[in-house]
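ZP: hey, is the thiamine diphosphate complex queued? I don't see it on the tracker
AM: it wasn't, my bad. submitting now with these inputs:
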Amino acid sequence: MKVSEETVQGITAEKASWMYQKMCEIRKFEDKVHDLFGQGVLPGFVHLYAGEEAVAVGVCAHLDDNDSITSTHRGHGHCIAKGCELDGMMAELFGKATGLCNGKGGSMHIADVEKGMLGANGIVGGGFPLAAGAALTSKLKKTGAVAVCFFGDGAGNHGTFHEGINLAAIWNLPVVFVAENNGYAEATPFEYASSCTNIADRAKGYNIPGEIVDGKDATAVYAAAQKAVERARNGEGPSLIECKTYRNYGHFEGDAQKYKPDVEKKSHLEELDALRKFREYIASEGLLTDAELDDIEERVDHAVEVAVKFAEESPMPAEEDLTKDVYVSYETHDRGDV
Amino acid sequence: MARIITFSEAIKEAMQLAMRKDENVILMGEDVAGGAEVDHLQDDEAWGGVMGVTGGLVQEFGRDRVLDTPIAEAGYIGAAVTNAATGMRPVAELMFNDFIGSCLDEVMNQGAKLRYMFGGKAKVPLTIRTMHGAGFRAAAQHSQSLYGMFTAIPGIKVVVPSTPYDAKGLLLAAIEDDDPVVFFEDKTLYNVKGEVPEGYYTIPLGKGEIKLPGNELTIVGIGKQVQTALDAAEQLTAKGIDAEVIDPRSLSPLDESIILDSVMKTGRLVIVDEANPRCNVATDIAALVADKGFDYLDAPIKRVTAPHCPVPFSPALEDIYLPSAEKILKVVSEMIEDDTTVTM
Ligand SMILES: Cc1ncc(C[n+]2csc(CCOP(=O)(O)OP(=O)(O)O)c2C)c(N)n1
Ligand SMILES: [Mg+2]
């Protein structure tokens, strides 16, 4: 590894290694969840992030544990990029007591506040004001922390988009709004549901920068996020980045995806693949050797296996956990069962 | 033999018959058709709702009457209110009742109150179909049962069917009705089968049904919990206790008489409501009976509900969150212990 040398985008070998590892973790974690779900091992439903790795990783490469992110129903990728442990994540999907949320949240509410991961979200559009709120704390307490709101193209049409971004803009809050435009909200194409051509076009209405990037290209996302995060940290206010991307699996597991044209699916799974693209970039820039990259993949394969084993062997939550943590404190003076 | 179809098919059939009968009936919601403006998509490949309940309707009625909406509940539910007030009869789908958080104003402050605020000079023949209920491992934001919230709002009618037969007849009545109706569909009932006639029929809103006659105990169930009540009743029969099971079917208006008449006969009441216990429908019915039926009671009224906590994801916790026949039996044994006229 050639530490400290940088590419045009300012990506060092060390950073490239971290980014490739996180991208592999997301892909392999999601592929595993896909298999487990197919086997009927996992309860509930899951929305997989595979295909969109470059977005979460390219953005979170600029964040540390003090920075916050808000996520979506498709939140596993954001979790991993923000540093959540695979063991606790997998256990959460199994509904186990050792999960990141003690099994109470599941896939759609997976969170790790210590890591600045303010939760996946079952409510589309939930993240806009939540990110603004975390950024307000940063501004008032002068912590220098940034909040990132990841959201889907479908969420861009929810009313909270307007309220959250406008609020962040008038209060000059350190937020980066990151659109993950994967072309579809469930089975509904972005073009049908949205009056704008690009989500980033809407930034103009809030007087904030709006940039469009190739969301399959980790380096492009990295560069755009760097500017936006710096701007936020310098007290210059929010920005919007629109990442054009694609989800490799269906909306949720079990979606036949008939609405996706075959050629589109094929090109995204093959030549446009985000991991492949980044790996080629690393090689062409000479940042890491093939052996180093293979080693990362092997380590990640192992880590995912370990996570599954951990989840499988963990206990279910205990009965008394059911009513625990509804409040911090709650004096009822009740009479028990009468 | 009568035709057997699922709860889901019964609901679809009601929409289909209503749309054939009245061209003002339209559907709207997220992916109720599915794949809007996707050229290569054959209509029979369209989603037809996340659970497929509206599947196939776009083929018969076209995309002008089966409208896919953006994820903008405040937008399209609000639009449905005045679409209804100006001459149409929309059936808007709020995918999960939990999403009411995104459009409560449109339902509570607009739809529910237009008629009253305008001195009776408007009507809002809007039906909102929405999914509710725990047991699907869908966690805290996709599993609530919020019918009690709507029951508390004057101007809205609330329907919670428990069988395919009732679902069809009640939905047709809801669509025919000139007031806003919120129609709750328990997502865990969609595959439940039952006898459903093919033709058009309605079940009046505000009329409950005795699902099982009995003399010693009344169990009122709501939605899926009617079945839990029936399961408990079967086990009680084995113990020599003769329970009556009542399904109010609509919570607003509420068939007070069917409940009071039953309690007059049995002297004991258990209400099974899977919503959280504070200010829920079980509480409302308990208050009704305490108020108007106190003299009939031989034992305290008991409520079997979810605890005062959100719906947990973990199957181990969600299973104990929900009411069960076992929990009903437990409260019944407490009621009967105190009562010397019955031995258990
Ligand atoms: C308020 C609300 N409305 C509807 C839904 C149901 N729903 C969940 S995900 C989804 C599609 C989201 O699309 P998009 O924002 O593009 O994200 P993607 O799934 O493509 O990542 C919908 C409609 C929801 N969870 N919350
Ligand atoms: Mg999308």
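AM: back. Chain B touches chain A through 47 residues (CB under 8 Å).
ZP: great, adding it to the tracker
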